[in-house]
């Protein structure tokens, strides 16, 4: 797995602190192990991360991190949330629902 992919386990406050500790673009991949499109994204994510080494990717399993899923109002998966820290504020930039490599690459190009 690429060094810029972090499998996150913890609570919402810990995730916020982890995001704030990063510079540049942060992308959170909300997924579930039973979700087929999530599995497809999971297989492509190392390549995407390698091609975007200046982006930090957090993987959050919604079944083992239910509090985080509730805080981010996750209804559909996979969901990719694009964020950037500016000062002490986390700015939500965009959200992509489902697995679409073109949309993901477009988002990465737009926000990095």
From TrEMBL:
Gene3D superfamilies: Glutaredoxin (3.40.30.10)
PROSITE patterns: THIOREDOXIN_1, THIOREDOXIN_2
Taxonomic superkingdom: Eukaryota
InterPro entries referenced in this protein's UniProt entry, alphabetically: Thioredoxin-like_sf, Thioredoxin_CS, Thioredoxin_domain, Thioredoxin_H-type-like
Pfam families: Thioredoxin
CDD domains the UniProt entry points to: TRX_family
Protein name from the UniProt record: Thioredoxin family protein
């Amino acid at each position: 797995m690429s060094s810029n992919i972090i499998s996150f386990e913890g609570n919402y406050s810990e995730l916020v602190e982890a995001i704030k500790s990063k510079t540049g673009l942060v992308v959170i991949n909300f997924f579930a192990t039973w979700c087929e499109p999530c599995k497809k994204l999971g297989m492509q994510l190392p390549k995407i991360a390698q091609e975007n080494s200046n982006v930090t990717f957090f993987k959050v399993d919604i079944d083992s991190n239910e509090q985080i899923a509730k805080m981010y109002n996750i209804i559909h998966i996979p969901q990719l949330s694009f964020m950037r820290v500016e000062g002490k504020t986390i700015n939500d930039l965009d959200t992509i629902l489902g697995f679409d490599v073109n949309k993901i690459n477009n988002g990465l190009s737009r926000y990095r």
